Amino acid sequence: MILPPTTIKELKERAQQIAGVTIGELANRHQANIPDDLKRQKGWQGQFIESCLGADAGNLSEPDFSKIGVELKTLPIDFSGRVVESTYISVVNISNHQGVTWDNCATKHKLEHILWVPIARNKNEALENSRIATPFLWQPSEMEANQLKQDWEEVMDLVVLGHLGQLNARMGEILQVRPKAANSRVLTDATDSEGNHSQTLPRGFYMRPQFTQGLIDRYLKR
DNA sequence: AGGTGATCATTA
DNA sequence: TAATGATCACCT
What we know:
Blueprint: H1 8-18, H2 23-29, H3 44-53, E1 71-77, E2 87-91, H4 106-111, E3 114-120, E4 131-132, E5 136-138, H5 142-161, E6 175-179, E7 188-191, E8 197-200, E9 203-207, H6 209-220
Parallel strand pairs: 1-3
Antiparallel strand pairs: 2-9, 3-4, 3-5, 6-9, 7-8
The chain binds a DNA duplex (12 and 12 nucleotides) through helix 3, strand 2 and strand 6.
């Protein structure tokens, strides 16, 4: 176990130490085994980087580095710097949203300060050849923060009104809503538009690749 | 069951 | 081929 960083500076220094390193080299340093692929261990890279940097929030709905309020996100890119996937942020609270506002929700807290760890890989190439690019700390600008809030509130307004059928992945400029469950048969409790109990597929908030591509372009390129 | 970490796989 | 919908592993 690696102790959690107690300052932003300490986290920065740790992040800098993995810049440019391949997953294979990092696994050697930590005497960790690398899976053959991610088909059955989709979160392996993210959890591996977490353990390397000392994330301590476990599966609490709080930022990974609890003492300094920083969330860690690995960001898959290809070797030309293209973002290849969306970024999961948090669950959409469908069944227990009473009293939850943008300002007190876990989604906002996670988005307030993120350490992005871009990891480049070629599809169909061994995971050990993935290479960590330069990690960077990011905080939303005022405009970005406003847009994030708007995206979140549009979704939660539908949830509060019980208009769950209107939730879809086309909503949202930065954040979108997509299924987040073990499979499509999983159900979570909900309330429909007439106030009756119902059930629906659990959803999560994801950052659109177009947005994270903008971050990569800003931070990783000149 | 519902969070965390996400990527896979099919559709449009 | 980008985007949507589906899925996998681990943890509490």
